[in-house]
Write a structure and sequence with these properties.
The structure is a homodimer.
Chain A: H1 6-16, H2 23-35, H3 38-54, E1 56-57, E2 64-65, E3 79-86, H4 89-98, E4 103-107, H5 125-133, E5 139-142, H6 148-161, E6 167-169, H7 185-193
Parallel strand pairs in A: 3-4, 3-5, 5-6
Antiparallel strand pairs in A: 1-2
Helix pairs in contact in A: 1-2
Chain lengths: ~200, ~200
């Protein structure tokens, strides 16, 4: 025999096609499936097909959805005039967990990444501009990740929307609950640079 | 919305059930499936069900097989009198790649791991003893991994088979192609301890 039996090889190949899964990890995952019960493999298989079939992109904001509009966009109680722009559906879940955002979202489905060749055309920017052009948006909040690529993405969006709608950015500084002695140099420098009048001061 | 849509949540859960896959990795893998084409999800799903349905354990050696006997055990040209005992089907593939082993295998499907509570009863040791009792085995080669647990496993098997069949172990020492300056202390100590007469010497 030259290797694993064909059905096992095919399963290993499928795992290996996933991002960040190398050949050794793919083998480990495939053997885990073999160790499981047949019903478990079936449930996993159904979940794959089902997710691909039922989960789509919201026609308004590009968030994950199970119908034309996502849960947020189809919720009449959300303020459609406030749009929080994020990179990924995972970020929507993170903001929703706070329970503090009553506006809507716009999911870019990526970020500007010159190194990986991801340019502006890969992001859902046209759809964002169309929403702004619709005239109902009162404020765009840029909620990209606080790192180099996230900042570059935010800047690019700010430039495109400049003069068309008020654009704000998330506050930047020390993380509440963190300790100054463990904060990175960059974070401390930024907290100094962006310092604000104390309550009762200024 | 409290989180991801249900079909997406279910897929994330399925990935997270796999060993070594945390919740963040599971999310990343599920989104990779969503990015792919529907046919790709279907092929992956079929591979899961197919592998679980068609891949079984060889009745003789516990290697992965697509019928009652694995490719090696059902190959009449292989010497059934020589049995190389390994921990995992992956090790069979590694030895087969050398093209130098004309005997058969016995796959333990694990190793003695006191810390993880894996005892001798979890390994296919009874089947190995049955093969030896069959009277056709002339030599058992212990091919467990060269580490603490592999050595403990080899020792346990050696004790069980002692007096019933000749038992050998794989050679241990410097890896061919490696460099002494990068070899670990343990490896160098063992290479000294197990030193052999030079060719023409001794």
């Amino acid at each position: 025999m030259a290797g694993f039996p064909d059905p096992l090889k095919r399963l290993i190949d499928e795992f290996e096609r996933l991002p960040g899964i190398g050949s050794k990890t793919a083998e480990r995952l495939a053997f885990a499936v073999l160790r499981g019960r047949p019903e478990e493999a079936k449930v996993f298989a159904d979940a794959l097909v089902d997710a691909k079939k039922k989960v789509m992109s919201c026609a308004t904001c590009s968030n994950v959805a199970t119908s034309e509009r996502c849960d947020v966009c189809s919720d009449a109680s959300r303020d459609q005039g406030l749009v929080l722009v994020v990179e990924h559906p995972r970020d929507v879940v993170a903001f929703e967990r706070t329970g503090r955002w009553r506006g809507t979202y716009h999911v870019l489905l990526g970020r500007l990444s010159p190194h990986e060749g991801a340019g502006a055309e890969a992001l859902s920017l046209k759809a964002l501009e169309a929403r702004v052009a619709g005239g109902k948006v009162r404020e765009i909040v840029l909620g990209t990740n606080p790192d180099t690529e996230g900042d570059a993405t935010a800047l690019a969006i700010e430039r495109r929307l400049s003069g068309k709608v008020p654009v704000t950015r998330l506050a930047r500084g020390l993380s509440s609950g963190g300790a100054i002695e463990y904060a990175g140099t960059e974070v401390l420098a930024e907290a100094l640079r962006l310092r604000r009048p104390a309550i009762g001061g200024g």
